[in-house]
Amino acid sequence: MAITKCLHMKQAKTGYPAKHLANGLRYIMNPEKTEHGRYVCGHNCIPEQALSQMVDTKRHFGKLDKRQGYHFILSFEEDEVSEEEAFQVVGEFVTEFLGKDFEAVYAVHNDTDHIHGHIIFNSVRCTTGYKYDYKNGDWENIIQPLTNRICREHVLSVLDLEEAKEKRKQKGQEEKSLAERDRRIRRDVDQALQDAGSYEEFLENLSSMGYELRGRKRLSVREPGAGRARRLDQLGEEYTEERLRQRFGRLPVPEMTGEEIPVEWTYVFIPYRERHLTRYQKECFLRRYRQGKPMADSKTWKYRAAIHELKKLQEEFDFLAAYRIQDKAQLKAISDATKEQLWENSRARKQLRKEMVPYEEMLLLLNKLQEKQMEAKLYQEGYQEFFQDHQTYQNLLGQLKEMGYSLSEAEQTDAYFFEKEERLRIERKKILKEKRIAERLHEKAEEKEKLEAQQKEKNRKPSARGRGKGG
After folding, report:
1. How far apart are CA 316 and CA 288, in angstroms?
2. Most buried residue among 23, 77, 162, 274 by CB atoms closer than 10 A?
3. Contact at 8 Å (CB) between 45 and 98?
């Protein structure tokens, strides 16, 4: 029977955003696994240019961040299907499931006992720009039924969906029950660690919370009123005694602020009649609007310059309204203030870089781990071809543990610095924008005053004809 598994590729936290997508495409097109490319094909793209085409699609629709792509795997029973037939089945699945909307590359690997197919497709539709949205229930209601139907057409065995649903349901209930208990204990253990200065003090804190401590070689805790004790090392690798003791001799893991990163808004045009503006603001608005208003026509490319001017007008309008600008003196004051703000922002960024220095080795190790995370997960799911990648992943994980950190702690540290860096970047971008608008408006105000002064001077001088009549 053919089973479809669904994975996704996130944005890389450091470096090239589509790094995981690039690694995935490189892996599935490996010549050694695909008869030197014989079992590789592109869907709405050329395989060798797939990455650049997918990124160009993201760039065109302004969706370069967040989830980068999806990775589906179709596994067949051992000795049930040939490479050619598996390739045909995977191709039919891609054509029907993805249609004209997505760029994809699919391949069949024959380097293991069981033949299996890989499909990687862009997260952004090349037709509309909308992202693929995987919902709960899609696997059992859409994806696996489609795989079953195509397999029946090729007289291949299929997966019993009802049996699979029941197994998934039972497993989910068991994991949920255990997870709730483990979450409570982990939360209390983390709190006890945070409030302790040594391992012995940590044990005292757990006891004061009401936990009964058991075990000489492996520490176990029993919640008040619970029937059985829970070994801490079964809560995760970071809760072994060795790892718990290591936490007292390392750099602290930074805590997240919990605040949301500011949203970078895209503004739309708002007519001035809907706002209460001063005479000066209305005058600036009307003057810029008349200069930048594009004609109504479907061929907007003809009016690109006019549209650009209208966007600048929108920026100026929002700026004037937000700061209640009355004269050019206020514009000069704001421009001067932004210079000071930029200096403060630069100082904060330098300070952040200094703060990151002690964590650089750990963060570099985390980056290498993330590059192998997908392959390690696939190996754990039974794909033996990822053995070497899994070994590399485990070695890197061991190095991280030697430094005294768990994977979750390293990820928390990375997220902490990423959040601070992103806040400063957005703040700097906002300051630069305000500086640019203030200086532009100030320059236009000075030009206007200069023109008005010239006009007054011109009106003040009597014409030559008028002087002749008076003589």
Report:
1. 9
2. 23
3. no
Q: How far apart (Å, rounded) are the C-alpha atoms in residues 430 and 343?
A: 14
Angle in degrees, CA 296, 299, 300, rounded to 5: 70
β-sheet with 230-231: strand ranges across: 212-214, 220-222, 230-231
Residues 6+ positions from 214 with CB-CB distance below 8 Å: 220, 221, 222, 229
Q: Which residues contact 265 (CB under 8 A, 6 or more apart)?
A: none
Whether 137 and 68 have beta carbons less than 8 Å apart is answered as: no
Tokens of 178: 């255990």
Q: Within 137-258, where are the H helices? A: 138, 144-153, 161-194, 199-208, 241-246
- Cα gap 241→223, rounded to integer Å: 19
CB–CB of 22/16 below 8 Å?
A: yes
- Can you tell me whether residue 7 is helix, strand or coil? strand
Q: How many helices (H) and strands (E) does the chain have?
A: 15, 8
Token representation of residue 131: 């992202």
Closest CA to 122 of 39, 24, 4, 41: 24
Coil vs helix vs strand at 95: helix
The kind and range of the H/E element at 75 are: strand 69-75
Amino acid at position 30, single letter: N
Extract the tokens encoding 375: 């392959």
What sign results for the dihedral spanned by CA atoms 97, 101, 102, 106? positive
Question: For residues 175 and 183, what is the distance between their CA atoms, to the nearest angstrom?
Answer: 12
CA atoms of 192 and 244, how far apart (whole Å): 11
The pair of three-digit structure tokens given for residue 125, joined into one six-digit string: 């539709």
> How confident is the model over 256-306, as pLDDT tens digits?
666 665 655 444 344 444 445 555 555 665 555 555 444 444 455 556 677
E strands present in 173-303? 212-214, 220-222, 230-231
| CA torsion through residues 67, 144, 376, 175, sign | positive
**Rounded (10°) CA dihedral 320, 326, 327, 331:** -40
Which among 432, 443, 441 is positioned nearest to 321, based on CA atoms?
441
121 vs 101: CA distance, rounded Å: 10
64-123 per-position pLDDT tens digit:
888 899 999 898 887 888 899 999 999 999 999 999 999 999 999 987 778 889 999 999
Mean pLDDT of 32-43: 90
pLDDT per residue as tens digits for the range 180-233: 778 888 888 888 887 777 788 888 888 888 888 887 678 888 877 677 788 888
